[in-house]
Design brief:
By secondary structure, the protein is of the alpha+beta class. Helices cover about 15% and strands about 35% of the residues.
Length: about 220
């Protein structure tokens, strides 16, 4: 018998086994190196062209919770109080005593009108006369609510113009403490005519004479 063919088969088998051994050894070395480099395992398949790579898990941190606090702005309410200026009228300086005055110029002796107005602290009654002059006067209290005005040098036949007094002989005023002016009729002396100022009560008064036109006014405190 010849040993040639059998010997050849044994040699081939030994060569294949040796190659496998080398390949296995290479794979083991690669595995060891791969594990030492960070835990990534690479498996090389003999006869496979692709390689499978397992990567470490990736941990994604949850997004930071962003909390926005809305700032609350409070606007202080500013209240401005306007100072109220109070003007106090000076006290009315009058008298309770009788007042008298002489005629001025050349009085015609006739009353042409009565006017009235309210002022701070007093009311005024004005007796108007024609150009020429104003009559003489006496003014004083005849009772607690009646201030009597006696005019002299008057035309007692026609002492005042039409429409000054109503049918009852009264001229309404309604200013301050003054209620009305009444026609008191003829006085006791020559050329005298009487007018009565009705009041709410006895008040101090002042009397003065003005010209242009001629007039006499009586101020009576409130």
């Amino acid at each position: 018998m010849t040993s040639g063919p059998r010997s050849d088969r044994c040699g081939i088998t030994a060569a294949v086994l040796g190659g496998l051994f080398v390949a296995l050894a290479t794979v083991l070395v690669v595995l060891l190196i791969s594990r030492d480099d960070g835990g990534t395992t690479t498996t090389a398949a003999t006869g496979t062209t692709g390689a499978t790579t397992t990567l470490p898990p990736t941990t994604t941190a949850p997004p930071a919770s962003s909390t926005t606090t809305e700032a609350s702005t409070t606007t202080a309410s500013t209240t401005t109080t306007a100072a109220t200026s109070t003007t106090t009228a000076p006290p009315f300086e009058g008298t309770l005593d009788d007042e008298r005055g002489a005629a001025q110029g050349s009085p015609v002796g006739r009353l042409t009108g009565i006017r009235s107005a309210s002022h701070a602290g007093f009311a005024r009654v004005v007796f108007d006369f024609p150009d020429g002059g104003s009559p003489g006067y006496w003014v004083g209290y005849t009772d607690a609510t009646t201030l009597t005005v006696i005019l002299t040098s008057m035309d007692t036949g026609n002492p005042y113009g039409f429409g000054i007094f109503d049918a009852a002989g009264s001229h309404a005023v309604g200013q301050g403490s003054i209620l009305a002016v009444r026609d008191g009729g003829r006085g006791g002396g020559s050329g005298e005519w009487v007018f009565e100022i009705a009041l709410t009560g006895q008040k101090p008064f002042l009397v003065a004479v003005l010209d242009g036109p001629p007039r006499i006014y009586v101020d009576i405190g409130d």
